[in-house]
């Protein structure tokens, strides 16, 4: 299997307060079914279930290999900050520390899905790198905006997306009418 290495996006000014982690990090576009992607998504869903007290917190159809246009995993070299506390890793390769994907919505719109960063790596810029890679991928395909849904019990996610230029919008699609769902959008031009 070949893993496409994605170019590192320029760090946004608002993330400059975060010191980069010790050691090298990189992102790779991987198939939805890649073991690292599956493991990170499982940890993301477990964390969401703990926050909301249920495993049934996904409004509408869950993302899948059939509808996820791209999936990105962030890696850290073994021995880098917190990498020894992260499950997984590959001999001679990196340790998976974060992920995210995009679902195409049509009409030049995409939806950010399954953004997750291992707790030891939060606040290091990994989430911004993953989101930047997804935004760049979407721009290269002519998408005009990205949307996302997060919940009212995820203030850190809300702050992160607001810092990245995402603005609150009326709930869309399966999220319409759900009081605990908060939707956001960012134009890509």
From TrEMBL:
Region of interest: Disordered: 1-30
Keyword flag Ion transport: no
Classification via SUPFAM superfamilies: Acyl-CoA N-acyltransferases (Nat)
Cross-referenced Pfam families: Acetyltransf_1 (PF00583)
Domain N-acetyltransferase: 38-189
Keywords tagged on the record: Acyltransferase, Transferase
Protein known as: GNAT family N-acetyltransferase
Tree of life domain: Bacteria
Iron-sulfur keyword on record: no
InterPro entries, sorted: Acyl_CoA_acyltransferase, Bact_Acetyltransf, GNAT_dom
Any one GO MF annotation of this record: acyltransferase activity, transferring groups other than amino-acyl groups
């Amino acid at each position: 299997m070949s893993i496409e290495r994605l170019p590192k996006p320029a760090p946004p000014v608002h993330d400059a307060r975060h010191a980069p982690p010790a050691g090298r990090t990189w992102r790779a576009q991987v198939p939805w079914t890649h073991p690292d992607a599956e493991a990170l998504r499982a940890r993301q869903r477990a964390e969401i279930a703990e926050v909301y007290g249920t495993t049934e917190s996904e409004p509408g159809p869950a993302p899948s290999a059939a509808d996820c246009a791209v999936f990105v995993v962030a890696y850290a070299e073994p021995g880098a900050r917190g990498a020894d506390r992260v499950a997984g890793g590959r001999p001679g390769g990196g340790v998976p520390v974060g992920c995210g994907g995009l679902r195409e919505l049509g009409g030049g719109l995409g939806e950010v899905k399954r953004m997750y960063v291992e707790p030891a790596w939060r606040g290091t810029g990994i989430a911004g790198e993953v989101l930047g890679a997804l935004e760049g991928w979407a721009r290269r395909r002519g998408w005009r905006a990205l949307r996302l849904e997060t919940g009212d019990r995820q203030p850190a996610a809300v702050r992160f997306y607001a810092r990245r230029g995402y603005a609150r919008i009326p709930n869309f699609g399966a999220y319409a009418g759900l009081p605990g769902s908060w939707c956001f959008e960012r134009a890509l031009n």
